[in-house]
């Protein structure tokens, strides 16, 4: 069990939870929370934060999403190379 990753509960920093159990824990812990309202990250629902703008600068899930989106845009706007006779090069291998 030492190879499992742990996370810190956003509602109680003294709670150290196995990441695969975090979604269920957050639901229970949120009911007893009495602090300022936390926003839910739309890229990972277990991320609950006070300042979403600051969080998105550090959120791996958001950064991966942006990177994947940029790659998709680049691939969709790519113009296939042409042969000297004007036909497209067959890039399927």
TrEMBL record:
Record-linked SUPFAM superfamilies: beta-beta-alpha zinc fingers
PROSITE patterns, per the entry: ZF_CHHC_U11_48K
GO biological process, one term: copper ion homeostasis
Zinc keyword on record: yes
Record keywords, A-Z: Metal-binding, Zinc, Zinc-finger
InterPro entries in the cross-refs: TRM13/UPF0224_CHHC_Znf_dom (IPR022776), UPF0224_FAM112_RNA_Proc (IPR051591), Znf_C2H2_sf (IPR036236)
Pfam family, one: zf-U11-48K
Domain (CHHC U11-48K-type) ranges: 6-33
Gene Ontology MF term list: zinc ion binding
Keyword Cell division: no
Stated name of the protein: GM18039
Organism: Drosophila sechellia (Fruit fly)
Taxonomic lineage from the root: Eukaryota, Metazoa, Ecdysozoa, Arthropoda, Hexapoda
Gene, per the UniProt record: Dsec\GM18039
């Amino acid at each position: 069990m030492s190879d499992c990753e742990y996370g810190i509960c956003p509602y109680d920093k003294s709670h150290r939870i196995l990441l695969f159990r975090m979604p269920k824990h957050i639901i229970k812990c949120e009911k007893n929370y009495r602090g300022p309202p936390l926003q839910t990250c739309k890229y990972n629902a277990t991320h609950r934060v006070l300042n979403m703008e600051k969080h998105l600068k550090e959120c791996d899930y958001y950064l991966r999403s942006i990177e994947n989106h940029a790659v998709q845009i680049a691939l969709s706007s790519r113009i296939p190379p042409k042969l000297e006779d004007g036909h497209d090069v067959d890039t399927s291998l």
